Amino acid sequence: MLHEKKLFLFDIDGTIAVGNTLYEGSRELLAYIERIGGRAYYITNNSTKSGRDYVEKFETCFHLKTDEEQFITSGFMTIRFLKKHFTGQKIFVMGTASFIRELRNNGLTVTQDAEPGIACVVAAYDSELTYGKLTAVCQALSSSEAPFYATNPDLCCPVDFGFVPDCGAMCKMIEYATGKTPVYLGKPSEEVVRYCLEVSGFSKEQTIVIGDRLYTDIACGIRAGVDTCVVFTGEASPGDLADTNFPPTYRYNAIKDFYEALINFDAAKRTE
Fold first, then answer.
1. Would you state the torsion angle of the CA atoms of residues 105, 109, 110, 113, taken in this order, to the nearest 10 degrees?
2. 3: phi > 0 → left, psi -120 to 50 → alpha, else beta; which?
3. Secondary element (H or E) of residue 27
4. Is the separation of the CB atoms in 192 and 220 below 8 Å?
């Protein structure tokens, strides 16, 4: 039940905010979570920003204080995977300057040139994408047998005016050119939920994943065995629920409605 939830795993873009605008109800919801002794983590598939970048954005744009540890990005999960399997080896990466810097700061050997000796190829959501970068990643994949990984399968990213291509769409171009499909390391992989459960100490029963995409956010929660909630302020629409393979536990038009449902549950419990 909603009133039992303590660990809230939020997608960001299209769920609690879009661009530099915080959705109505998000601030109140985060205050509620703190008031009940809960914990909020942000499990975004946006790898263009590091945890530190997000802390600065939340404070500057939303006037919300957060900790770097609250941001479990697809970039963070990708770094964990690469450190485990490819430390000391040469990794080709297509990504933003911030993402490349974060990889190197974590001791990984990164190249953006299709040179000999590449151990694996990684594609991330790249808001600085150029045709030169696409050419280089295709060359790296076509000239070697290196495994292909990507941060996330999202096809589009919500912005103020609508949507722009996300990592999944970029990878479709690469797939059509090379015939190679990546293994995605961010949502819908359940690893991000497992990580949040481990570091927070909360149980699966106390946990809920909230997002705007069925095939990433909701699928991630279902695979991890926790409750889920979809909001219709991003990619998903009510019509998508008719034939989805990833039915959410709860559904609300917006985060404000989710917050009001939590408050109503609390009020009902107090009167029992």
1. 150
2. alpha
3. helix 26-35
4. yes
